[in-house]
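I am still learning, so can you show me any protein sequence you like together with the matching structure tokens, please?
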Amino acid sequence: MPRVIVIIFVVWAAVSISFAWLTGRAMAEDGAEYVGLEICQYYHPDEYDDFVTYSKMVKSFENILLMKKNLPEEEFQTCFECHTTGYGEPGGFISIDRNP
């Protein structure tokens, strides 16, 4: 019986790591993750419309891209926590190359 549990755990870990590696997204232990603006728009169309119409946060990431040329890379990386969604969290922003 313990051997079966170990095998199940190893398979589960391999699938989880593969998912994160293939998609560039990680899952939290409870399965929660950031799903992206398109999903928000689908389930909350009125709120989405208000967000893109009135929120300055819509342009937040574009603003740091404008400043990138004037910042050292290490300092530019510190902008991600406030100017992206879910940086450092499961399913959140990883890098400009992985999920612009």
User: Anything to note?
Assistant: The chain has a mean pLDDT of 76.
